Amino acid sequence: MKNILIPSTLQSDTINAVKTAIQSSNGEQCQLILMLLADIPDTFSSASLLRNINTGLNTTQENVLEMCRQIILESKNCSLKIHHQYGISSPVFKNLMEHFTIGLTIITPSFKASKKKINSFCVQIISNSKCPILHTNANFEEEIFSQALYLKNSDSSLPTEDLQAYVNTLFSLKIVSETKTNESEPFLTDTIAKNNINILIETRKPKKLKLLKKEKAALNELLGLPVLSLYEEVS
Fold first, then answer.
1. Phi, psi (5° rounding) for residue 16?
2. What strands, in cross-sheet order, belong to the sheet with 147-152?
3. In the chain, what is the straight-line distance between the N-terminal and C-terminal CA atoms, in Å?
4. Rounded Cα gap, residues 171 and 186, in angstroms
5. Closest CA to 5 of 119, 100, 105, 77
């Protein structure tokens, strides 16, 4: 397992994301990069710039950060790095991924729901990257994933066997069922219940970035399960 990136607004769901990241490391040495994003102020004054980019954390954020540090200390094999990122773009994000040797990105509901434009734009940039993404959901608690449902896109050319082999480099889980993404929600809910599914798997392809784009509710949010999203060209 390479290092794990968790972009965050330091809400409580970050704690479970850190716990899940530790579990996915399988006892191997791993660094968790907790990324906090901020816009670059539009100013020519260096003093004003420093005032704007060092706004500090509120009490809730400080408590979440302290809890994450305590969890890391207890893990023995993982370390935590707080990375403050001012401004974001596709080239900048690519450089970050290479610099920190990121093998998995975990996106929490609070970060995805953030009203800050830089955060929503970052979600789009991450989705266009080739890095595996674990999307958690509102009721998510850290757990050991075991049974997966593969939601196959109609234009996907990736064989399930190859997908299973790639997934096993990230988590020790088994794809026990496969279905099309255009199936009705009741059908998917029934499939999930019958097969004791605790994680969904999907593949994705690049999309055009739109700064003011408002994403519709993702399928994993409707079904109440985390989803592992993999770039289509994984071979």
1. -70, -35
2. 78-86, 30-38, 3-7, 102-107, 133-135, 227-231, 199-204, 147-152, 174-180
3. 17
4. 27
5. 105
Residue 80 exposure: Cα atoms within 13 Å on the Cβ side: 24
Position 206, amino acid? P
User: What is the model's pTM?
Assistant: 0.86
Residue 215, CB-side half-sphere exposure with 13 Å CA sphere: 21
What is the dihedral angle through the alpha carbons of 143, 19, 160, 123, rounded to the nearest 10 degrees? 130
Instruction: Look up residue 40 and give its DSSP letter.
Output: P
β-pair partners for 102:
3
Which residue type does 167 have?
A: V
For 55, half-sphere exposure in the C-beta direction (CA atoms, 13 angstrom radius) is: 12
pLDDT tens-place values along the chain, 235 residues long:
589 999 999 999 999 999 999 988 888 899 999 999 988 766 555 565 555 555 578 899 999 999 999 999 999 899 999 999 989 999 999 999 999 999 999 999 999 999 999 999 999 999 999 999 999 887 766 567 889 999 887 777 777 888 898 898 888 889 998 888 777 778 888 888 999 898 999 988 777 656 555 555 566 667 788 999 998 764 4
The continuous run of DSSP H or E covering 53 comes out as helix 46-53
Tokens standing for residue 177:
């069922």
Q: Cα separation of 129 and 138, whole Å?
A: 24
Q: How far apart are CA 174 and CA 177, in angstroms?
A: 9
